[in-house]
Amino acid sequence: MVILFFCTPELEDDIPEIKRQVVVDGWIEDNGYVYVILTYNSPYFGKLDSASFRNLVATRAKVSVSDGKETEILTLTRDTNYFPPYVYRGNSLKGKAGSTYKLLIEDEQDTLFAVTTIPQSVSLDSIWFEKNADSDSLGLIKGVLTDDENTKNYFKSFYRIKNKNKKFIPTLISDYDDFYFNGQKFTFSLRKGPDSYIKPFEDIYFKKNDTILVKISSLDKASYDFWITYQNEVMNSGNPFAANHNQIKSNIRGGLGIWCGYGSRYYSVIAK
Amino acid sequence: MIKSGIPSYYGGRLSSVIEVETSKNIPDRFHLKSNVGLLLSDIAIQSPLIENKASILISARRSYLGGIVKPVSRFLTKEKSVFNNSEYSFYDLNANLIIVPSVNNRIFISSYVGNDDFSLFKSSFDLDNQISWSNTAMSTKWLHHFNNGYIMKTVAYYSKNNLNVYMGQNDFFFNMASKLNDLSFCNEHTFILKSNLIKIGVQLQNLFISPNKSKAQLSSFRADFGTPNEFNTYTISPFLHTELNFSEKFGLIAGVRENSYYQVGPYDVFIRGQNQEITDTMHFSKGKKVADYHALEPRLSLRYLLDSSSSIKISYTNNVQFLHQVNVTAVSFPTDFWMPASHNLPPQKGKQYSIGYFKTLAKKDYDFSAELFFKTFNNLTEFNGGLLSSTKKATMEENIIKGDGEAYGIEFLIKKNIGKVSGWISYTLSKSTRKFAEIDEGSSFPAKYDRTHDFSIIIQYNLNEKWKAALLFIYASGSAFTVPTGRYLINGNILNQYSGYNSFRMPDYHRMDISVTYSLKKTTSSEHNIQLSLYNVYNRKNPYYIYYNVSGDLDKYKLRVTPKLVSLFPFLPSISYELRF
Prior knowledge:
The complex is a heterodimer of chains A (272) and B (581). Chain A is mostly beta strands. Chain A has helices at residues 50-53, 221-236; strands spanning 6-7, 22-29, 34-40, 42-43, 62-66, 71-73, 75-78, 86-89, 100-107, 110-117, 124-131, 138-146, 154-161, 169-177, 185-190, 206-207, 211-219, 256-270. Chain A has two helices and 18 strands. In chain A, strands 7-8-3-2-18-17-13-14 form an eight-stranded mixed β-sheet, covered by helices on one side. Chain A has a four-stranded antiparallel β-sheet with strand order 6-5-9-10, with no helix packed on it. In chain A, strands 11, 12, 15 and 16 form a four-stranded antiparallel β-sheet that branches. In chain A, a hairpin with a 4-residue loop joins strand 2 (22-29) and strand 3. The termini of chain A are far apart. In chain B, the strands form six sheets. Chain B has a 22-stranded antiparallel beta barrel. In chain B, strands 13-14 form a two-stranded antiparallel sheet. Chain B has a two-stranded antiparallel ribbon with strand order 17-18. The two termini of chain B are 30 Å apart. In chain B, a hairpin with a 2-residue loop joins strand 4 and strand 5 (105-122). Helices cover 3% and strands 67% of the residues of chain B. The chains are: A mainly beta (272), B mainly beta (581). At the A-B interface, strand 1, strand 4, strand 14, strand 15 and helix 2 of A face helix 1, strand 27, strand 28, strand 32 and strand 33 of B. Strand 4 (42-43) of chain A pairs antiparallel with strand 27 of chain B.
């Protein structure tokens, strides 16, 4: 009696043209150099192929970062660890916890500006691999963090499996606000997140015998606001009970995206 | 249904009124009506308890619609999207007692319980969404006839509305409970003087609302959401309603309702700093006034008989609503929360003007009406965050934005009342818009349920004593929604850019239902009928929700975004057996 059905409504012809804007995906780590990936936005229903892709990448911008004392102009390099594989990189100005960094981008007729800070990193009390109750070979990464009740803290968690992942990937549900555990001992569980939600992804548990590198990063409020709205958007797309025209909260003036400072600590966990 | 010229003894809402009355008479014998079908079953039993003095009516209904919702989850699972399985069911139960202690007194005691459960599950992420909503209500009404020209009605009722939203994944769960309790009392005196009527009375209401009581736990750690938001309100509404017939041609309905509304403690008002941290708290102890609002609602309606078969009616209605319905999701689903008017959230106000022409045709076989209306609204609300962000203490009020709206249109109705073929045709042409300073820089946008065209036709055909048939066809313009106009890439994922709030339309909604009833047996004391009903005869995929499927492989420079329309309720044939005695 029940009939499965769906259809594709014809919306594409009625979508108005959008104004082209520069999109920033930029970050600076404590004791790390600057990375900035620049692209352009595009019409929502437009197809992407190798020919149209070239139009999405901004490779002629002048990108500079300043900590108030030193200013560095970044150099465009090719790096296949990222998509698109064109990254503006620094090699002299290094991030320092407690400092503020201003990003200035000049691209054709657009000028973009953003500010971020690198908060102090936090130290975990403990971190370990815990097998799932119903499996001998799969499990979660668990950790304990004691939150400082005197400071407002935001965290982001990443993982990288040695010899399997080229870069750190955000865990599934990776953004935390200490509003819920201010001043308390907070036990958290980490699951693998997808490298991209575009491809089907079902493998969320860590495997036994893997060596997992975990990065716990502190970030400022503007960065957290971006990443939590980003997380809601990519995780809940298709869920009618969560999606509600989620507006991403960008900290880029004159453009889209994020300029984010991370105060990070790294841990190595062997899943056994 | 009352859509214009709403009498002053109804208040508390900006919208129309549907009056539903159960039978006021004591039956002379036992009656049973039962319907057993493929989609749901119901039963109603009515019986005298004491001859001419007391009777009882009990009815119950239960669905088994779980299979109907599966198209949503099956389709999304096939696309390897979010959902894997879903279930839906509902039941309700009514019990009514009528007691007639004397000729001049009738007492009605009614109760109702209803519950709906909906769940969605995605096995690959171990994600589990469950939503349940329930209503419980009890009322006692006492009608006392002093004489033929003076009736007193006294009603006391209590209702409880609960909504529960649960999301779980492995060792993490989040639960939000929303509650609205209503305790009300009304005393009304009606005086009938020849063809005139005067009604005077007062309504008292106490509301307790807990919009978002939240719990979250991760392993053994339980999140601290602080003291949950709770609201206590009182409303006192005296009213006067008059129906005056100055002559055979000219009649006037005039009334006024005054509302005094109070929000009382215990309650905390947070003062926030630049970074939204709480810098100070104003605490109001139990019973202490936090906020108050006063509103007068004049009502006026004039009727003029043009001739024995036609009339004109002009009306003006002023309404106030002290409850805000906060919609937090993209779909039409009962996940709305209720927020009362409070210290920083004033009540909604509305004004309606209408003019109508009414005519009976062909010796009262047909009724025709045409009615123009214009409405304005102030202090309407929209929720400026997502469901998951509504968990934070005080975030609900702080994420509600206020704006205005207006609606106007014309409605036509033609009814055939008697004969083998009866039914009606109705058509409404209308426009409903909103304006919020925080949305689209304050420019006007369509309301979510703005429906330019709304058409329906119902035909009932009594072929003979054995066979009856009925047809329903409805057509409505698609509701407004926001579509992403652009996209961009961050960290290997596609993010949407939205512009033009509610600037797009869902595909139009239309469907046809047909039913055929055959009388198996009919005697003076019983009826046995069998009914075949066909819901959505031509299997129209009416829109419920649109989401955007992103597929491809960035490493291969391939990406495609495809809008997917989710529909519920396909073609549904059903057979049911009805018994009455």
